[in-house]
């Protein structure tokens, strides 16, 4: 797990755009994450447990906190040094290979 004190709470959404996969545990049980742009200032996150179960949620950036709602608020942090995305309820994610 990443050290939460070393992670950036303030980051550009452009820095985290792309596909991400879980760093640990059983990857078949952890959702894949895809962050993409929908407009000039709008980004969304796709959470997919399998091809038939996909949640598509808007990303919010308020008071220096980036988050989305999926049965509660899930916060995002980004470790730019290691290129790791941290989701508060799901752990560390690394950028997927193309």
What does this entry look like structurally?
It comes from Bacteroides reticulotermitis JCM 10512. This is DUF3876 domain-containing protein. With about 100 residues, the chain is mainly beta. The chain has one domain. Helices cover about 0% and strands about 50% of the residues. The protein is built from no helices and nine strands. The protein has strands spanning about 20, 30-35, 45-50, 55-60, 60, 65-70, 75-80, 85, 90-95. It has a nine-stranded antiparallel β-sheet with strand order 4-3-2-1-9-8-7-6-5, with no helix packed on it. A hairpin with a 3-residue loop joins β6 and β7 (about 75-80). The chain is globular. About 15% of the residues are buried.
Write the topology of this structure:
Blueprint: E1 18-22, E2 32-37, E3 43-50, E4 53-58, E5 60-62, E6 65-69, E7 73-79, E8 84-87, E9 91-95
Antiparallel strand pairs: 1-2, 1-9, 2-3, 3-4, 5-6, 6-7, 7-8, 8-9
């Amino acid at each position: 797990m990443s050290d939460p004190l070393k992670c950036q709470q303030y980051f550009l959404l452009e820095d985290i755009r792309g596909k991400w996969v879980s760093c640990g545990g059983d990857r078949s049980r952890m959702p894949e994450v895809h962050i993409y742009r929908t407009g000039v200032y709008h980004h969304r996150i796709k959470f997919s447990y399998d091809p038939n179960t996909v949640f598509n949620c808007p990303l919010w950036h308020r008071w220096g906190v980036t988050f989305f709602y999926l049965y509660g608020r899930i916060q995002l942090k980004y470790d730019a040094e290691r290129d790791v995305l941290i989701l508060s309820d799901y752990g560390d994610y690394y950028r997927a290979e193309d």
